[in-house]
Amino acid sequence: MPVPNTKPSLLVSRLYLEAVLPTLAPLCRYDSKAATMIENETFGVRFALASGEHGSISFHDNQASSGNGTNVSQLNLLLPTAAQCVSLFSKKGLAIPIPLGGWSVLPKMGLFQKVTDRLEAVLQPDPADLEDPDFLAIHAHCSLFLAVRALVVLLELDPEGQKLLPKLPKGIAVFRYRHEKFPDQWIDLTSNTPQAGEGELPGPALVTLEFKTDQTAQLAMANRLDSLAALGKQEMVLTGYVPFADSLDLVMKRIQPYLT
Amino acid sequence: MLNTSSPYPKSMALFHRAAELIPGGIYGHATPVATIPGVLPYYADSGKGCRYTDIDGNTYIDYMCGYGPIILGHANEEVDAVTRERQAKGDCFNHPSPLMVELAERLVGLVDFADWSVFAKNGSDMTTWATMVARQHTGRKKVLKVAGAYHGTDAWCTPGHGGLIEEDLSQILNFKWNDSESIADLFAKHSDDIACVIITPFHHPAFGNSVLPDPEFLKTIRNLCTHHGALFIVDDIRAGFRLNIGGSHRYFGFEPDLVCFCKAMANGYPISSTLGRKEYKVAASNVFLTGSYWNNAVPMAASLKTLELVEKHDVPAHLEKMGQRLFDGLTREAKANGFEVVCSGPPAIPFMSFADDPGFHRMQKFSALIAKEGVYFHPHHNWFLCAEHREADIDETISGAGRAFAALKAEQ
Asked: Are B145 and B151 in contact (CB under 8 A)?
């Protein structure tokens, strides 16, 4: 079933809040331009819909982190509707977030805009930029980070994801990138609520997909990879319960259509 | 990126060429992804008996037999002699050869409930056509199948995801294997619109153990079909002629209305068939059926000779005996090395996996290790035996398995 032309605003807004926004964390960790932008900055931004969905990012100690748990001044922005949230993040249409607190952070919004512009440049790169191997690696890792978190949203809200979720095995799928500096990304379906994370696994992996080349990861994330050929050539290595990865891939292919 | 440390340099090099030209490099069930890429060979060169040699010169005792077609062994001389003879007279004509009638007579004579037979090339040709016959006969739409069962590559049954639209599956309902209540529920909800039930004679999912049918489950299907006027189709593509020359329904003791055969019926030559009861012959005649090569004479000659030899040598009994010997040996060697294995399926179509290995990680490692011993075991698909697997081959396999289990133990 293709992604509908009229994309559900709540789903897309949650993709922005729970997948795109958190990707600022790896961006600032690995991309020197983003890292320079946030150097010595300490502030946070929280976006919340009137219906309660929210996402936040904090900059502190020369890094970015998503979610709660940091004690920094935070600008709280209310987006009355999911449609406005989509407009704000996609830069299409009118969106006027309402500041509810954290006024002292307002002057930092120009900087925040610059960091998010950098994220956009990394996630939707100019093809020429991909010729730089360092940039390619960061692009691929950030795309993978985003995809795994988007997967959680789609399994909950996308019609295909919803259909698939009850049929998926109760296990952990791991996505590994060849560079050691990039932590494993994983999705955990062992409980009733899918969870995404990185680094140490919460349990044994049921399936592991490892990208052996930067270009393979980039093409995979862009839905432009002949996966069977790449696996046969061992540019990707898939071990364990392959049908699990196959099913997740089916949903992952739907991320990009929702975000474009 | 060419893996220069691969034990299969020629396979890998050829695959790199293929990947430039052929989507997937190798697609379908033979894709390296279905096994363990880089750890098992990609391309075959030759075969004889129960062994084959890949293009890098590695020879294996073959426990896949081309995924089923090879029942008498690779390059069987008697079968190949009749096909050469037939080939010399021509193969593809404007008309069928008399062999078509001979083969139909032969098959109808073998399958106890059957009154007619048709021919095609692949399993999917026949499973799809059989469901169409059921729809033609009943005037109904719905097809009931077991969740996770494989019936081919057509849109209604493909395990793939690409290229499908919602409507492809809108009339296909799934029930659970060996769950009589599950299928009874579907009949209760849709009885007036169920054209047929299609099952494999035993459940043999990829990435899962094989499961034999509960006799009560088979009886329930038969009764529900009879009561509601739906057809009972058995997809005997994979198991046909391996368990019983008259069809797997005789091995398991049930009575279908239509049966689809392929794989083992011609020892590797391309042909498939559906057989059915006389009351469905008119409907069958009304469902258009043809293909460019479906009347070819060579595969029909091969099938007649194959069936003759399978019957003459009671191949199903031999496969059962060799399969049991394999099961016993694998279980013994596993235990000796501290592993618990699960041997599943009928012994003639065996499979082994490790207990407590839901991701098949251990099985994948074991398959890689035993490949080094010259044994080709698929890590997550049922295996196949052929008439040329003799006791010595089974014993050689078990010895290799012992070393592979020991190596696996050492790795842990």
From this structure: yes
